[in-house]
Write a structure and sequence with these properties.
Elements: H1 3-27, H2 38-80, H3 91-141, E1 145-150, E2 155-158, H4 160-166, H5 178-181, H6 185-196, E3 203-212, E4 215-227, E5 233-242, H7 244-279, H8 286-318, E6 325-328, H9 330-347, E7 351-355, E8 363-366, H10 367-383, E9 390-398, E10 403-410, H11 443-454, E11 458-464, E12 468-476
Parallel strand pairs: 7-9
Antiparallel strand pairs: 1-2, 1-5, 3-4, 4-5, 6-8, 9-10, 10-12, 11-12
Helix pairs in contact: 1-2, 2-3, 7-8, 8-11, 9-10, 10-11
Length: 482
């Protein structure tokens, strides 16, 4: 409401109040009682003014309350975002309302700007957290042990592989000094020396053994300096790559070459010696020459078997062996082996028998390989059984496990308990047995590869020294078996 309108309203109220006072005076019969002239007029004016002032006060108070309510609603609308009417219309509150509205609008714009920035920061935070989790997942998935230390030789980062190899708690490792965390003083010294070198390009490779879980592992340790933006050394990254298997394979290769050389040298030396005697004419008669020929043939056959065994084991281990799987009757394989080995058993007066199961069954296997494995076991049993002993071959079907187990038992010299764990290793031979019979130490290893590696079966042995041995191998039954 404008100032002019307010003055007109108050004037109208004053006139109405004066007229009302005069009418009340006349009706009450006070006209003759009240003083006349200027005194009466003054009295009437005062009464009218008082009434008008009272009415104006009440009206202005109501208007102020109304405008204050609008101001409150205006402020509340900026807080809640709900639309509301404009600023108060009264002249005495319009300026205040406009100022408040400007401040509120400015604050609202600032709030909207801050809200947008907050949302953008939340998005960036989520992206950063996702990237951090992704980097953490990659870091933890590294199979090599990785340990990162800072400029104070305290652990900054470590993965699960490092905690397992170096045997510390991953949750408690952060900011722990490596001297307190690691149990290997040599590795701690390597990390400290790398950091103290102050050479940002310093990178070291060390082959280092570590004892873990009651066994020793060999690691290729790589240490590299971490630099800060000022190109100063700020820490060290230590990576431990397990090369235990590679070392074992290298040692096995060296041992294999040495053993093969030894095994090849023996028959070749015999062949060379007897050939030289024949050339030099040291066998003047036919019986002596036939004896030399027989020895040369025997050593040549031994050399051929050795080479065949080496090649077969090598093919199986490398996975390039060609396996001709087919439905095979295991009883017929065993009978063929018995027929082949019967002359050797008779020559030593050994009783060779086969206990055949009444059940009809097949195995899905390479017949030639199973024949070779069975032949090796029966041949060894005859070889290490004294004259007059017994060798028994038996096949038993296990319906519960759906397997068939072939057992080759003998009454031979037996195997010492300490030799049993090594019996199927390449070129391993029981020292006491070397005087009893010749061998290459590859036959049982080949049996193990044929049964377990190629056919997924199991090989085992039980023995009592001086009373004989029993070798067993199990194969899965064919699905075609009734």
């Amino acid at each position: 409401m404008s100032l002019g309108k307010l003055v007109s309203l108050i004037g109208g109220l004053w006139t109405a109040a004066l007229t009302a006072a005069l009418l009340l005076t006349e009706q009450a019969g006070l006209g003759n009682i009240l003083p006349t002239g200027s005194v009466a007029t003054t009295f009437i004016v005062i009464c009218g003014g008082a009434i008008a002032t009272l009415l104006a006060y009440l009206l202005i108070g109501a208007m102020i309350d109304h405008d204050l309510s609008r101001l409150r609603r205006l402020i509340e609308s900026h807080r809640t975002g709900e639309p509301v009417g404009g600023v108060p219309s009264s002249f005495y509150l319009r300026g205040l309302g406009q100022s408040i509205e400007q401040v509120l609008n400015s604050q609202q714009q600032r709030i909207e700007s801050l809200t947008g920035q907050r949302r953008e920061l939340e998005i960036q935070t989520r992206i950063s957290e996702a990237e951090r989790q992704h980097a953490e997942a990659i870091f933890q998935s590294i199979s090599d042990a990785v340990l990162v230390t800072d400029a104070f030789n305290e652990v900054a980062l470590a993965n699960e592989a490092a905690s397992q190899v170096l045997q510390f708690d991953l949750e408690e490792a952060r900011h722990q000094p490596v001297e307190r965390l690691l149990r290997d003083p040599a590795l701690v010294k390597l990390i400290r020396d790398t950091r103290e070198s102050s050479n940002p390009n310093n990178r070291r490779h060390v082959e280092h053994p570590i004892n873990t879980d009651s066994r020793q592992q060999v690691f290729d340790v790589t240490l590299a300096c971490v630099t800060n933006p000022q190109s100063e050394v700020a820490g060290v990254v230590t990576i431990l790559h397990d090369i235990t298997r590679e070392k074992q394979v290298s040692q096995m290769k060296s041992s294999f070459v040495s053993s093969v050389s030894h095994e090849l040298r023996t028959p070749l030396s015999s062949i060379k010696a007897y050939v030289e005697m024949l050339v030099d004419g040291e066998a003047p008669d036919e019986p002596t020459r036939q004896e030399f020929y027989s020895i040369i043939q025997s050593e040549a056959n031994r050399l051929s078997r050795l080479i065949d065994n080496i090649l077969n084991i090598s093919r199986i281990e490398s996975g390039i062996v060609k396996v001709q799987r087919e439905e095979t009757s295991l009883p017929s394989v065993i009978r063929d082996v018995i027929d082949v080995m019967a002359p050797q058993a008779r020559a030593k007066q050994i009783e060779l028998s086969y206990t055949e199961t009444p059940l009809f069954y097949h195995v899905y296997a390479d017949r030639d390989m199973i024949y070779q494995a069975t032949l090796n076991l029966v041949s060894n049993a005859i070889k290490y059984t004294p004259s007059g002993g017994r060798v028994c071959v038996e096949a038993v079907v296990d319906d519960h496990r759906h397997t068939v187990t072939v057992s080759v038992s003998d009454t031979g010299v037996g195997i010492p308990p300490e030799a049993l764990p090594h019996l199927f290793e390449k070129f391993y031979r029981v020292s006491e047995h070397k005087k009893i019979a010749k061998g290459t130490g590859l036959g049982l290893n080949l049996v193990k590869h044929i049964v377990e590696t190629v056919h997924g079966g199991e090989v085992s042995v039980t023995s009592e020294e001086g009373r004989g041995s029993t070798f067993r191998f199990s194969l899965p039954l064919s699905h075609e078996t009734p």
